[in-house]
Specification:
single chain; mainly alpha; flat
Length: 104
Amino acid sequence: MADKWILVIWLVVTTAAIRAAGPIVLGGRALPGRAMNVVTLLAPALLAALVTTETFRGEDDSSLTLDERALGLAAAGAALALRGGIIIAGAAALAVTAGARAVL
């Protein structure tokens, strides 16, 4: 049990150090325009990678699988392509995934 709390404390300290490194290194200067463009694209790219990884990950973490989650992801993508909001996309993914699990 103590090992888990040591890990949690280590992660908190490491996260704080990483977050503080940016302002310390920059010293109050603004990033150049090209660097800001890259930074603004990082969050959506990381979120897309996380969603894709969690959707298609197999049982043994080394294989890809297609199941009901892929249908839900496709439904969310279709809702967003049709200019639906994020809540509509989430509801579509939820409904399609649940419906596919019930039928399959």
